[in-house]
Please model this.
Amino acid sequence: MVDRLVALLFALGVFAVPFDAIPGVGAIGELSNEASFYCFAAAMVVQVLRTVGSALVGAVRPPLGSAQVLCLGAVMLGAVLLSGLFNAAEIATASFHGRSGATKILTSAGVIVYGIALAWLACRVVPGRWYACLILPVCLSAVVCIGYGVLEGAHRAGTTLPVFTAIDAAVHAGSDREVNPWDNAVNLKLVEGWDPRLRTLSFEPPAFGNFAGLAWPWLLCAVMMTRGTRRLVHLGLLAAFTVLIVASQARTGWLLLAANLACFGALRLLFLPSDGRVDAAAARGAALLLLAGIAGGVAAYVSSLDRLVAEVIAGDSVSDLSRLAYQLTALNIFAAQPILGAGLGQFAFLAALHMPAWGFLSPEIGASLVHPEAPWPNTYSLYARIAAELGLVGLAGWLLVWGTLILAVRRAGLRLAGRGGAVPPIAYSIIMNAAGILVTGITTDTYRTPMMWLALGAGACFVARAVEGACHRAPAR
Model:
């Protein structure tokens, strides 16, 4: 009975992931508007109580994969601790918009701890329930996003249905404000509706793009693991969701969709063929080309910064100006403290000091640095944030966590295929999610994305069960 309740709450949390603009409990902090948080938190409480009760009678057994989750989580928290200790004096005296540096590092670390707990919960719930507790809820979320996206698209085209107005007011009550509370100015983006991008159930288009890009591999997994009529239904859903991602005009969604397609193609052709027979030489060559391409892309970006800055300043996009200014601010902080950064969550406390002069041309930046009620300054890139706050140690730790997960899942998939079967579809989805997390770090800067931690937990328990000889091939449906 308790297991079923935890599984139900977990599945509801997965379904609720795109609902991240609800009116929540403000005291919770940056997780307050996430509908999924309340479901996952409830599941955690029930599971912890059950675990404590089982421990009292000596019947507790840690879930498979929990040790791997804790080890990878320790890498993340270890970087946070080192950076915090190194910058303890500065953090203790930091203050910005009525918040202290010490409070901010604790709340930011709390988000990571919550994520690790969510990954642990996934290890407990998902094995044996891959379809019911993870894949199906993601599919149902996609269905709701598609339905809402059709209504939102009609609204953008000039046809507003009453049902859209009612639903929109409910699901975005936690984010939409017709008047900015920090300067009492009219929120023209909302009132005039000049942003053509679709956000569906999320608080902004990039947030939807982030969810959609990380959900897409699980929709593909549903196609691969089902048969007959169910496969046709899932194939239609995958196609419709792909159309929604393209139509949304969210660049984050486009980037992740391209990454998903490239990753799946590379896995099936080179790194993880369905029969497990890998051409080692071709795989090594492709890996070297990939690393060379990444290094070349980074070098090209750095070498073109001056030109890019000139183009953005001369352009008319406030969003691009704010994004580039904050990212260069983060790089300036990194240059000043390259090894351990300034401490988790400390970017905003140092932003004004390290902001390039042209960055103050952005009205968004001016508001966020002057008005306490304005949106908290952010880097618009997780890599820029980690570099500024945790330095090279943090960057290395982040890449180590997801690189380790990708390689471990690949080995597990090959091990299962070598036992006379095929690579389980779940392996592809986990690797695509991990690769997508590395890609989405280019355009988003938050640790609170639930799909990120679900991928970590799913990967850890998949690997652990493969090692123990459990077969993850889903039955035909």
Notes: The radius of gyration is 22 Å.
